[in-house]
Amino acid sequence: MTFSLSLDPYNVKPSDIEVYHEIWPNPWVMPIFMLLIGSIAFLLGFPILFVVHKYFRKELHIDLQMGLFMVALDTASSLGIAFGGLLNLPPLNLMVKYHSLCIIQVFCVSTTLVTSMLIMGVIALERCLLIVYNIKLEDKVYWIIISVCLSIAVANDLMVVCTDSIGLQPSGGMCHYSVNTRYGRAAYIIMLFTSAGSFCVLIVSYCKIVYNRHVTSRREQLALGLDPAKVKRETNRTTVKLLSILVINLVTNLPYVITQIVGLFDPTYYTPRVAFFTVPFLVLSLWWNSVIYLGLNEKIYIKLKETVNEWRAKYVRNHLDRLNISL
Questions:
Q1: What sections of the protein cross the membrane (predicted)?
Q2: Domains of the chain
Q3: 300, CA 20 to 30 Å: which among 100, 134, 310, 324?
Q4: pLDDT tens-place string over residues 169-222
Q5: pTM, to two decimals
């Protein structure tokens, strides 16, 4: 017996098994996708954390510190996403059978994922204040802001857990707030309001930085007699880099945010098909944030390649040694 998610959407919270039977196109696709992307994101994020902690932790500017914290959150999210995909494969289907696993995933994934989205805006704000307005605030100011962002996410999760307002999502691969309950809708509103604020700060800050870069480059070129071609190349390079970050963040996060906003007014809109085409973008942000972090830090990227090559060489040597011993 299947359950129609369109029945009394505001007052009836469907059970996880009822949501599971509505998954489109089938219960295999999204869990496999989440297991794959979550594993890749974790295998990328963990080496970055290792390399930065070992070689660069004493020389990071505040924007790189916050970026590293965002990578750490995304790495934790990727682990939760991967395990969620594994546990929800049809042969196991454990997240449907054991609601406690849903609760654990909400704390592991929702807290870190929402905080990561908010940190993007904090990083953009710091860059804009420093580059455009030449304002350098103390590092602790930004960490206080991040602490507030983390507290909001944790408070949201506590609210939905204590009021039984979480459940399996129509995508079938993860648990999150339930829009079919009052407190679940409240949690969504808080999450979407803060996320929208972060995106607005991100857009305004990076657009201001790009505009400021073009204005100052022309001024420096005239005042210092710099090579116009070289100045143009550097300006375009900065523009492409910042706009790429902006576009990637909007593409990976905005579809999910928009569908959730519409779903608050009409829960029947957020169908399994809509979830299938929006949730993957959000999951991909776990991978893209690590890629962006490496793209902005060439020294870390070079050291990461060296470290991975060392690990690979060590593994090959150990494997050959075991083969020689067995022979």
A1: 28-52, 64-86, 98-120, 141-166, 186-211, 242-262, 274-296
A2: 16-308 (1.20.1070.10)
A3: 134
A4: 888 888 999 888 999 999 999 998 999 899 999 999 999 999 998 888 777 666
A5: 0.89
